[in-house]
Amino acid sequence: MVGEILLIIFSFALILSGAAGVLMPFLPGVPLAWLGMLAFAYATDFLFITWKALLIFLGLTLLTLVLDAIAPVLGAKKYKATTSGVVGSILGLFIGVAAFGPVGIILGPFLGTLFGEIYHGRDSEEAVRSAKGTVVGFLAGSAIKLALVLVMLGFMISAALTVIF
Predict the structure, then answer these.
(1) 0.90 cut: is pTM over it?
(2) What are the 10-residue block averages of pLDDT along the chain, 165 residues in total?
């Protein structure tokens, strides 16, 4: 009994860490939240969170991992970035994380798009607009991830209330 209670507390700590991870890019937010759901389901013998629900949330979790990689690129394209800007965004993501750590997740694609656009011959105003698009894409992706983590949290709170009452 005590073990199950500790596991449930741990599962909520994981999901809250996941929520923080959406805001702090060095933590894998949505995967941590999903692991919290898995721990909760295990602690309650999968009575309140089923394997089917876990697999659906796993699919959504994997989708957010893909979204993390492409959201800045989609933002850059929406703001009319050239191919050079999009390539710069992708390269900037990897170089930015390596050079600047967590801040590089935003700064890298921004600077990469900016330099790519300038390299392509765009004036600075257009280059900055395209680079801002990468940030908009990142923020949109973060909002989607936060929404998913909050849905997971709500799902777990609902299940926990069912366990308690």
Answers:
(1) no
(2) 86 92 79 95 92 96 86 75 84 86 84 91 89 83 90 92 81
